[in-house]
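dude i think i finally got it to work??
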Amino acid sequence: MKNGERGFSLQEVVLGMAIMAVLCAGFASMLKYVMKSTVSVQSQAWSQEETRQALAKIERALVHAGEVRVASSTFVEFVVDMDQRRSYDPGADLDGDGIPNERDGDRDGDASQLAAAANQWRIGFNLCDDDEDGDAALDEARRIYLEGSTLWLESSTNGAAWGISKEKLAVNISTFMLTYFGNKANDLGKSIDLGDDGVSGTGDGGENDGIVTAREMDWVPAAAGMGNRSGGLDLKNERRYITSLRLKVGLDKFRDAKTDYTVETDVYPPLLPLKNSRCP
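look at this
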């Protein structure tokens, strides 16, 4: 060692190491917090995106509904037009009248035929005709339901058994809820906005509030309505009031029994009120 130069004493080295340890511990704590916050933000973003994608798929399926056949809070079965089949060819000519399917209002040419009331669903113009290939079976029915944490869309073509054609809409679903509404502007709904008791003039909270609920569809009896007061929409005439469906979907992406994100929207299938008011 040259004259005038000195090294570090043991005490100085120990003190320096202690200071470095404190700084490193603080930096590690800050880094852990930043990483945890980043992962949390990313996880929330992923959950939001996956939930919205699931909701969009449900909306795309339901918007084509022309009739609701089963309506519960966790399960819906509905009828769609033949043109929603994967095998549907818009350029073909089903009845051979020279008009392609996509421009033919009566694709199977049976609009002028007469049928018994029980078979009326099989004839007529496309809106009311649910048997356009003439095989005496329903052209296309679909179901959406939650099984475990998987949301499924099932299809039944020409009366085929359920379970043959299944499409997975979303996974890790923790919440799936359906709510059904009618519309006072619709001919079928204008007389049943009578509240939870289903009776006019009692002044309960839901009477004349402008909202036609599933409770009112079921609870308002003839002659104002067609309900049987069973506690559910178990009659076809009750389900004819349905004009919109509210969807609530939640996702548990990390399967920790905690819903990461929930989204809600209303779907207004344009054919529902039209078909319900014009078809038998």
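The chain is about 25% helix and 20% strand.
im so relieved honestly
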